[in-house]
Amino acid sequence: xxxxTERYAALDLGSNSFHLxxxxxxxxxxxxxxxxxxxxxxxxxLDAERNLDPAISERALAALNRFQPVLAKLPKDHxxxxxxxxxxxxAANADGFLEEAESILGVxxxxxxxxxxxxxxxxxxxxxxxxxxxxxxxxxxxxxxxEIVRGCETxxxxxxxxxxxxxxxxxxxxxxxxxxHSVNHFKRAQRAARAELQGLQHMAAEAExxxxxxxxxxxxxxxxxxxxxxxxxxxIDRLAQEVAGAEHIADLNLPNLHEKRLPVFAAGLAILHxxxxxxxxxxxxxxxxxxxxxxxHDLAGRLHGGDRRADTxxxxxxxxxxxxxxxxxxxxxxxxxxxxLRPEYPPEGRQRLRWAIQLHEVGLALTHSSFRKxxxxxxxxxxxxxxSRGEQEYLSYLVRNQRxxxxxxxxxxxxxxxxxxxxxxxxxxxxHRDRTERTLRGINLxxxxxxxxxxIEREWLDSNPAIEELLYQEELHWQSxxxxxxxxxx
Length: 490
Prior knowledge:
This protein is of the alpha/beta class.
């Protein structure tokens, strides 16, 4: 349970805008203390090769410099920065930008999947929802993607579609033209959005529909004024017809629309109207909360016994019938070895090792001969609630390299695997290869500076001859590593 005045910060690096939220919990109630945003339009700077335009990057970094003083006042574990659609798309080519962003903010940028983005949006909107639990469909139109979630007390179905107000503006309204020479770009954008929504009609069926974030709020303000709480079907039909009849975005004269929102308004409206039509929505409430509030709630949970990632790992273990006794044996031994090796190892690293071990045999549910490769693939590409893409890649690397030849990773932003964790995991797997309980009495792991030293009493080795041979093989596997392993029998 959080203390009365613990403060948290969430920073959402979206495809259209960057949003900062500073909040604190007073009992169980979250109070927003400070908000800030910058219209960066990161998606505009993404070229065909998924590279970020330097001018857009500079604009984005300038916004981060503005946010930094707020973050500097908080403990690092009370801050979470997430990157969404554009950074997901450009992640392989954005190392330089991400490194500069981390240098400014002092905390890492976590790239999250579309499904994880949808989960956090749901969590944020539900934080503002009152009354008895009821079925809801929550919709968020971002700059590069649109998230749709259906659920009651927890999200039951999550979707992330590749359509957003910036990406559609770039594709259909690049020159600002809406309709000219019998070509209606607004209607083309609508048709494209409806095509993306095929098969999702069930998401809003019999549910209370709630919209959030910039594009939906902008439409609500245009229709009903600055205090708009909902959007009605007949009103958005009329607005869509009006905008589709304009020749150029500059011709639009819409009440309560901020000038910075104008360049992407037509695209956002086209997507929203398509959602109303395709999902047969008659009314949509507008929520003041969105992903940032979800991030804050998630972050508070991590620090106070409600880490969603732990729940996810448990669910995966149950689904794939992982041997929990073996996971416990290997985990206990690996963590004890890590304690010998690095007594002050950070808690998040210990947790990462524990999760990797709990999942290290997930591939056995489908194959024996290639279970490591399959397990690593499953972990890397699954939608694991609560985890960032970087965290999943790290777990995948550890699972892939739990035995045999060590594959050298291609390091990039946010992925710098520790040989300490890998060594302890591999040794734990060796010691319990036959799924037998063993103690570490007579075993010591240490760092000699130029090599790891694994010292084992001869009596222990004599009583476990098969493991002795595996340990000598392990010594060979580490010969090519920066810090080799030396086995010393005493």
